[in-house]
Design goal:
Layout (H helix, E strand, L loop, with lengths): L13 E7 L1 H4 L9 H12 L3 E7 L5 H6 L1 H4 L5 E7 L2 H5 L4 H17 L4 E4 L8 H22 L2 E3 L22 H15 L11
Parallel strand pairs: 1-2, 1-3, 3-4, 4-5
Helix pairs in contact: 2-8, 6-7
Length: about 200
């Protein structure tokens, strides 16, 4: 199979796996408008020779991520694994302790293959009542605890400057639109950049 003339040949490039749920998959927007595509555009513009692979699945929980992880990690020559999961755990009220266990299992699988992990933290809208407030706090802290315990690169706010900004989200108020996805890609880039090697630095 040959590459289309309007698409660069990325077969020799190292891979960056963007693993996540609908926030990664690009729910409600074209595939080429999702944040991994916007991240690819940043890398190309700055001369970083990597291919970003969108491994997002809408509706995915952290447990679902564990179940489908092996086939994703069959990808060869992976430079970085971006882990963005947990939003659906929180929306369904699943226990933060279970989410932590699943995130740790995913990190174990990536690191056992020598792949460094960039963990994305998430938050939830403030709920009503003491229990909801405690749940939101425990949910947010779970990401921080995993990052500290595993010493992985951690971006605390995946949706920084996007969550709650109407013009950067779709009508549901939960999923970024194309403009919001570009902001998310910029957020990710700030943490991803130190993990990569520009073409000019390679021998």
């Amino acid at each position: 199979m040959t590459n289309r003339p309007d698409r660069p040949d990325r077969s020799a490039q190292q891979k960056i796996i963007a693993f996540g749920d609908s926030l990664t998959a690009g729910f409600g927007i074209p595939h080429d408008g999702a944040y991994p595509a916007a991240l690819q555009a940043i890398l190309d513009a700055k001369g970083y020779p990597y291919e970003v692979i969108n491994a997002g699945v809408s509706g995915e929980t952290s447990a679902g991520g564990v179940r489908r992880l092996d086939w994703v990690l069959e990808e060869r020559d992976v430079a970085v694994f971006i882990l963005e999961l947990g939003a659906n755990d929180g929306l369904r009220g699943l226990r933060p302790s279970e989410m932590k266990k699943n995130l740790n299992a995913i990190i174990d699988a990536a690191e056992s293959r020598g792949i460094p992990v960039l963990l994305a933290g998430l938050s939830l809208g403030k709920g009503d009542g003491e229990y909801a407030d405690r749940y939101v706090r425990d949910f947010v802290v779970a990401f921080e605890q995993v990052a500290a315990e595993r010493d992985v690169t951690f971006m605390p706010h995946f949706l920084d400057n996007v969550a709650g900004v109407a013009e950067l989200n779709q009508a549901d108020g939960k999923h970024p639109n194309v403009d919001g996805a570009r902001v998310v890609a910029e957020n990710v880039w700030e943490y991803l950049k130190p993990m990569l090697t520009p073409a000019s630095s390679r021998s």
